[in-house]
Amino acid sequence: MIKKQSFIYGAAVLAAASLLCKIMSAAMKIPLDRFFLHEEGIAVYQSAYSIYNVFLAICVTGIPIALSSLVASADNEEGEVLAKSTGVLVTLFCLVGAICLFAFSRPLAKILSGGGAPEAQLSLQILSPTLLVMGIISSRRGYFQGKCTISPSAYSQLAESFIKVVLGITLCAFFVKRGIAYGAFGAMCGVSLGAVVSAAILELYYRKNVKTNL
């Protein structure tokens, strides 16, 4: 059984985690800007990230809130069924979004670069499978919030941000030798890997604490 937490405790943990995540994300841009990508590369990075966020919003916006409301009003068995069915539907929806983002990465990159060289194409391509992972993350976080258990979401957010910063900077430094497009690609690899780690933490916690075998 998943242990419930008080509202004040859960809100405090989530707020602290969100603050730390924002600090880490802001800190990541300093070495990327000053040492690796500079102004041109940062523009590529932010442009690709903006397009990804549009697809992400289309695919998963409102899922955690809606699922948490449904789970909160259901018993344990019904909540687990809701979590399973919602997870499947969101994953399928995110699969369509990921395919579209990958397939149209080149024209989208051309739009971002004003019709010139599509520097952002590699970044969009590595971000496309991340949509699938975010489907898992959104459904699991919605389930935990419905059960008034905030810690898994907070821990997964911290892990995601930490991996994004450490691996993003490291891989950017490694790939930028091949050019700005590859440097931005390396930074986006950190974003994707961070999401994978976050999803793994949530899924492991879910399977460890829920009796029903999903």
Question: How would you sum up this structure, described in words?
Answer:
The protein has 214 residues and is an all-alpha fold. Helix content is 83%, strand content 0%. The chain is built from nine helices and no strands. It has helices spanning 7-36, 38-60, 63-72, 76-103, 105-112, 121-127, 130-146, 151-175, 180-209. Helix 2 runs parallel beside helix 9 (180-209), helix 4 (76-103) packs antiparallel against helix 7 (130-146) and helix 6 packs parallel to helix 9. It is globular, with a radius of gyration of 18 Å. The relative contact order is 0.17. The model has no long low-confidence stretch (mean pLDDT 84).
What topology emerges from the helices and strands here?
Blueprint: H1 7-36, H2 38-60, H3 63-72, H4 76-103, H5 105-112, H6 121-127, H7 130-146, H8 151-175, H9 180-209
Gyration radius, rounded: 18 Å
Give the helix tally.
Answer: 9
Number of strands: 0
Looking at the structure, what is the overall shape? globular
Strand content: under 5%
Category by helix and strand content: mainly alpha
Termini Cα gap: 14 Å
Helix content: over 70%
Largest sheet: none
Oligomerization: single chain
Order of helices and strands: HHHHHHHHH
Uncertain runs are none
Mean pLDDT: 84
How would you summarize what this structure contains?
This protein has 214 residues and is mainly α.
Distinctive features:
single chain; 214 residues; mainly alpha; 9 helices; 0% strand
